[in-house]
Amino acid sequence: MMNRTKCLQMLAPHLTDEIVVATYSTASEWVEMSDRALNYYSFGAMGLASSHGIGLALARPERRVVVLDGDGSLLMNLGTLVTIAAAAPKNFTHIVWHNGSYEANGGHPLPNRDVDFTAMARGAGIANVRRIERMEDYEAQLPAILSEEGPVFVEMMIEQGPLGPRSYEDMYKAERRQRLREALRA
Amino acid sequence: MNAPAKAVSGVLHGAPIIKAVKEAGVSHVLSVPDLHTAGGLLTPIRSDPDFTLIRTCKEDETFGIAAGLTYGDKRALILIQYTGFLYSMNAIRAIACEHKQPMCMMIGLLSKEVGVAPQESKKFGLRIIEPILDVMGIERHYIDVDEDVAKIAPAIRRAYENSHPVAMLIGRQPI
Predict the structure, then answer these.
(1) Which residues in chain B are closer than 8 Å to A82, comparing Cβ atoms?
(2) Which of A26, A102, B107, B110 could bond A68 through an S-S bridge, CB–CB 3.0 to 4.6 Å?
(3) Res A105: pLDDT
């Protein structure tokens, strides 16, 4: 099992002009670790991170969009995998942190902790899928994950991180959304 | 807030609706098919080179995608049935109302009786749409006959200029 914090620390130096769409527990960590203008936090409705990412990817095809999704979040919007496969944005990377629990909601388990997201993504029609369980594999594959023609789907097998409560007030501020708009128009 | 929509007589054509949506600068249409608008709107939109049609599996996806498009300065129309609007309530609450994103919804009132105002329909699901929009503070327009189509382009433009949601309720089936 990998550690999400370490994975995010490894991801951060690889990013330049990518848009990062992070959600809930991951977003809490990410905003402290890498507070970039090109971070997108405008959801407020669980499950829709990848949907926001599709819109961004289609609107700005010259930029890579990296969605940092949760397993519980994705389960609330499984149809998105089919939508992603059909829309097929080439600049889209969808990373799902699989720890088998609703970490942001008290750490209760998913209805089935062993759900196979990689198989689901493949079955939905996404060809570029991978499941990663070891840090050394993640490190080796990270450049490809961020550069291969999308949609790219990655299931990251991780241990449960620290439980909440978390405040999302700061990341949902209108100023952050404005900062993103300005960065995208620059 | 708005007065309840009133019943009027007339016809509603799909072509002028599509023309109005284009005039408002919409480039992307996001939709789960709605029997009410499938023939008169979605079918011609599907083959219209001026639009990119994104099909989704559930209606709440359309709000996330539309928000993402907005950040990339693309305008989107969300074309759904009233049941899909009801399903998407949490996404609308968050994205459209709390984050004040310009979500432009065209909502088909499937099975609404012709010549009957939405709030006077025998169908519970149709009667509650306008009150829900009002309590959420969402601007709404009733598009039931061709004369109503003139409201569409200004409403979409206003939504993007002021960053607020708008709902256009399609009363009768467009032909």
Answers:
(1) 57
(2) A26
(3) 82
Partner A contacted by B49 (CB < 8 A): no
pLDDT in the model for residue B108: 98
Contact A56 B99 (CB under 8 A): no
For the cut 70, the answer to whether the pLDDT of residue B1 exceeds it is no
One-letter amino acid at B33 equals: P
By the 10 Å C-beta count (0-12 exposed, 13-18 middle, 19+ buried), A166 is classed as middle
Domains identified in chain B, total number: 1
ipTM of the complex: 0.95
Q: Is residue B5 part of a domain?
A: no
Q: Hey, what domains does chain A have and what are their CATH numbers?
A: 4-11+18-107+120-185 (3.40.50.970)
pLDDT score of A164 more than 80: no
- Determine whether the interchain pair A42/B95 forms a contact, defined as Cβ–Cβ distance below 8 Å: yes
Cβ–Cβ below 8 Å for A52 and B99: no
Q: Give the Å distances, CA to CA, from A125 to A75, A81, B77.
A: 17, 8, 26
- Report whether pLDDT(A43) > 80: no
Distance of CA B141 to the CA centre of its chain: 9
